[in-house]
Fold this protein.
Amino acid sequence: MSEPDASAVAAGTDTPLLELRGITKSFGAVEVLRGVDLKVRSGRVTALVGDNGAGKSTLIKGVAGIHNFDAGEYFFEGAPVEVHDPKTANALGIEVVYQDLALCNNLDVVHNMFLGREVTRGVTLNEDEMETRARKTLDGLAVRTLHSVRQPVASLSGGQRQTVAIARSVLWNSKLVILDEPTAALGVAQTEQVLRLVRQLADNGLGVILISHNLGDVMQVADDIAVLYLGQMAAQVDTKDVQRNQVVELITAGRSGDIGLSPAMAEVVL
Amino acid sequence: MTTTAAEQAAEGQRPEGIGGAARAYIDKLRGGDFGSLPAVLGLAALVILFGSLKGDRFLSSFNFANLLGQGAMIIVIAMGLIFVLLLGEIDLAAGVTAGMCAAVLGVTMTEHGWPMPLALGACILTGIVVGLAQGVLVANFGIPSFVVTLATFLAFQGVLLLIIGEGGTIGIRDDTILAIQNDNLPVWSGWILAAVIAGGYAGLTLMRRRSRITAGLATEAFTVWLAKTGFLVAVVAVVTFFLNEERSRRPEITSIKGIPWVLPLILVLFVGLTFLLTRTSFGRHVYAVGGNAEAARRAGISVARIKVICFVACSTLAAVAGILFASRDNSISPSTGGSTTLLLAVGAAVIGGTSLFGGKGRIIDAIIGGLVVAVIQNGLPLVTEQAGIQYAVTGGVLLIAASVDALSRRKSVTG
Ligand SMILES: Nc1ncnc2c1ncn2[C@@H]1O[C@H](COP(=O)(O)OP(=O)(O)OP(=O)(O)O)[C@@H](O)[C@H]1O
Ligand SMILES: [Mg+2]
């Protein structure tokens, strides 16, 4: 995890780490995702943006195996895969940091980081090993804000919790980390801290999907931006090729100048 | 010490020495985590109160052994309840489950002539089946545990009545069963037991300390370890000494001394269940489900499986308590395990420090809280004959414990 290996760099240049083609998903009669394409490369932060209800969370829940997509193709490291449950996604190296964090307040930092995947020696928990690895991972992410890894999560600030959730996602040989609005509830300093952490993940060679409503954050940290507009992928563009106001147009109207959905496509919806 | 303490505090590690440990403990209390402190203080206050009012009878070693026997069933049922309380669930039927399992034990032995081990197996199996059924109804059907166990609470009383027959009782004559609550360890083996407990604790904690030091992890100071171990040794020695005293009113006819068999039984349950809850993945998952079921589910934990196992643990321990009832009362009646049994057991767990909101609780809570309840049950009748006062006081204590629980929870949520 600390250094991108040769194959990861190669994968970063040719085959995307994750590729989705023509994904559809409905809840009952409501079509939430309509033919979505997405490419995520290793070593890059791909921002996933879009208005409330555009389908961002639904898309990543499908990637993580919590929902099943109705149709479409799902490639991981170039190979077609079937992901129907979270375990399969984890086995591929996909980790999600959820919007609502999913930490247990009554457990300490180490226990939360290893929840569901405890290290054991025979039948007993190997606390020493887990504590050592948790510390190493936090150090690897240059986290200095946590005083003790043995304090209960209930006593942590929002930013510290987010840090724990992110650190948990990289404990395992993960290749793709998905973050759903990691800075939504944070103050300025803590947001800065978490964004630095997000950048650090990509610089360590992982693929990162960042969902955010804060375009400032997105422009600052993302390498490319994918815009969902009412369940369709309006565009996926390099951050350096677009202006902030173009992204705003893509989010609100599905198109901006000659990027985005064709006028006909964008109108079908209205 | 000053520089190292400062450095370690800067790194966020525990500062050295007893002073540091005391400060850390005070911080924990400030954070709203009172643990068993209120119960231990309450226990001490009650012992002093009853001791000063009726010292001659209350503080006798006869009464102490009697109190253990009275409290044993409550303690064991409370141990089981802690599993479901940790999930944020409740088992209102645990008391009558104990009664029903005891009836199965009695009927199979007395009326069907089954050998004792087989009858014991049937008793425990009844507990397991009850837990399985209740667990599946709660975890897989999604019926609130309050409703499921309220229904079984009524139903099992009916079953108990059907097994025993209207107005009847079943006598227990098996010597082994009766021995649990009526016989004592020989004095010499009591001291061996005490040595094993003290030595075992010291050895295990010392080994753990060493492995943490080898791994380069923060470790409690040696003086703190010494103080804890010293305290435990003192408690074990005092209890053993007290119970090894002659407590027969007429020693020239029958001598009664030694640790009652029920005490090692409770200790074995305590060590085994504490190990299960704190040192295994299963135990960790129980706390996780109680703390945040959705987070546990996303971490790949089968929430339904954990719930079912906890209900099975609860009912199985209730069956064990049923054996203790049979042993203590020499018989099973339709009221065995009924009346206030369940309320006292829930009270014991909560008084000991287990939360009614889930996610917080330890097996030791059952013992400490159970002792508080037993002291009240045992001490009040010495002071007042009025059952009304006894009920009111017990209810009041439970209410205080539940308030401490709710307040500490609010404190830790907001602060
Ligand atoms: N389980 C579900 N059942 C029915 N409809 C759902 C379900 N989950 C999501 N939806 C609908 O799908 C649409 C997309 O929701 P989604 O949560 O993916 O949006 P989002 O882009 O993440 O929005 P936000 O920015 O508010 O988080 C919404 O209209 C929502 O109501
Ligand atoms: Mg969302």
In short: Chain B is about 75% helix and 0% strand.
